[in-house]
Amino acid sequence: MSVRFGPVDTRHLPWHERNQHQIVIVVDLSCPGTDNLLANAHQLLYYRVRWIALKSVYDGETTKGWENCTEYPLFDRLPLLISNELYYFCTNGTTGHHLVRQQYRLSTANSSAPMYETFGIWEPNEGVRLESSTVRTPVTSVRRQNFHQFQLRASLVILHNETLNHLDDLHDKHIDTISRVNYLLTKSVAHALNATVRFSFVDTWGYRDKETDRYNGMIGELQSDLADLGGTSMFFMQDRIKAVDFLSMTASTRASFVFRAPKLSFTDNVFVLPFDQYVWCCTVSFILLSGLLLLVVLRTEQRYNVSTGTEHNTTTTVTGLSDTLLNVFGTTCQQGSFIEPKTAPSRCLILLCLVVLMFLYASYSANIVALIQSPSTKIQTLEDLLASRLKTGAEDTVYNHYYFRHETEPTRKALYERKMRNKDGTENFLPLAQGVELIRQGHYAFHVERGVCYKLISETFQEEEKCGLQEMEYLKVIEPYYAVQKNSSFREPVRINLFKLREFGIQGRENTLLYTKKPRCVGGSSFIPVSIVDVWPALITLGWGYFLTIMMLITEQLWVRLRTRLQPTHEYFQQ
Fold first, then answer.
1. 93 Cβ contact list (under 8 Å, min separation 6)
2. Is the pLDDT of residue 476 over 90?
3. What are the helix (H) ranges across 235-308?
4. pLDDT confidence of residue 315
5. Count of beta carbons in the 10 Å neighbourhood of residue 494
6. I need a labelling partner for 185 at 20 to 30 A (CA). Which of 35, 96, 257, 508 fits?
């Protein structure tokens, strides 16, 4: 879309046009008000909008073009920064060629000298012919890659002062790792642009003050024009989109809860896991059916007074269903049979129960041993973590403090209030080394930058302790992004070179050197002794058994005493 302006009010400029990149504004420098229009265009001169400037001179008879390419000083006062796409037509007084020219500067400061480009030569019959000797490509951001040793300003987040002495080496690389990666990448970008860089150091990424709507920390320096580049990548958050421009993901790391998978008995009752529900149903059905059949066989024996032939009992105890069920249940638990079978059918039935239940018992026992040694995979989501008995904590960093305290999503907020904040008002924000040690001890989930955490885990854990490590993301963010000032003229040159660093493998090299990958489980799992947690369901069953036994004993005693008191009264009425 092309728009032509003469003496027009600046309110008609496309400040809020969605498709600014498709707009071309044509101005005539000889028209009154054009100087005021350009002076008030501000960022539209160098951000997204394209401009074509003409200057017509009327000599009384004909209209001529701009003859002298250097006689319009207003351009030297305009913010024609490196990303501008303002083209002006003028005539070279020496050669008579009609030139299409551009000029730009790296900063609005007076010390920044303007630079001139001849984009092409206009021919009446051919149009604009590119000047190949000075122009490599028509894309402005690719063409202007030489900053001529201009000094860029970068803001770097440093949480530990000792890091300042080791930004260029690998000493204690688990401290301020994300800042050290981006420090090296920022220097590489400056080198590619033939620029220098001056770093300023802050202690936070920057968070919005709701009263002033301003940010502190690194984002605050970008907002206040104290820095051109955000030297430490940060989380891509919705409220930050209006404050900075995000360019590229530079650090392949995320913050997550890291924990050792607890034993299966910590999350499940291992005594019911060896068989699925169908096998349990079949087992119970077999016990009931066997007990019923055994009752029928024994009652038949008692009815016909069947004996072994060597001994005749004068008294016969009547066998009930409870006796046979108890006998089969004892057989299931490999406790033998207390009922003496006297006939072939009863002996065959009990022998069948012994054989079948022996295989079931062997399978059950083998599975129990394996399950007690197995890790649990039940904790997969934040809801599972919240419902589990794992304790939680987080590394004592600025972003952890902010995001845990300001989270509004119900599950995440409940996780902070119930597991991160203690009843005495203290919070579980711990130093990195202490948190990793709690992970090693088990039953503890620590929220930390993964690559940093794995460095300490590789150095302090035994080989078998590295098995079963699990991760769970808490922050609803993607990998950190590199950022610059909002609507910065350096945006595209920096973005292009960040992409080049990633494509050429330099970004991957820096991340590999400073970040540690998740340790591989190569040692296998060691023997884990049985603890109270493993046998807790059995202890609960034993406790309920004791309780029911005592209650039944008390009930029987009360019943006997009640019958003793009621018996004389009953005899009295009979008399």
1. 67, 68
2. no
3. 264-267, 277-303
4. 47
5. 26
6. 257
- Identify which of 154, 174, 152 has the alpha carbon closest to the alpha carbon of residue 163: 174
First and final C-alpha spacing in the chain: 121
List the strands of the sheet with 24-28, edge to edge: 2-5, 24-28, 50-54, 86-91, 98-104, 115-123, 127-130
- Look up residue 528 and give its two tokens: 């884990």
Q: Is the Cβ–Cβ distance between 259 and 439 less than 8 Å?
A: yes
Q: Are 391 and 444 in contact (CB under 8 A)?
A: yes
- pLDDT for the residue 572: 57
- 297, 327 Cβ separation under 8 angstroms: no
DSSP-assigned states of every residue in 87-122: EEEEE-TTT--EEEEEEEBS-SSTTS--EEEEEEEE
Confidence of residue 527 (pLDDT cuts 50, 70, 90): low
**Whole-model pTM?**
0.76
Which of 245-259, 295-309, 360-374 bottoms out in mean pLDDT, i.e. has the lowest? 295-309
If you average pLDDT over every residue of the chain, what do you get? 83
What CA–CA distance (Å, rounded) separates 39 from 75? 9
Q: Is the pLDDT of residue 219 over 90?
A: yes
* Cα separation, 291 vs 320, whole angstroms: 10
Q: How far apart are alpha carbons 385 and 402 in whole angstroms?
A: 21
Candidates 437, 471, 465, 440; CA nearest to 521 is 465
Task: Say yes or no to pLDDT of 99 above 90.
Answer: no
Phi and psi of 531, rounded to 5°? Answer: -115, 180
Task: Write the pLDDT tens digit of every residue in 159-192.
Answer: 999 999 999 988 888 889 999 999 999 999 999 9
CA distances from 264 to 115, 330, 473, 538 (A): 70, 28, 22, 15
Half-sphere exposure of 551 (CA within 13 A, CB side): 6
- Residue, of 293 and 158, whose pLDDT is higher: 158
Q: Which two tokens stand for residue 287?
A: 């016990």
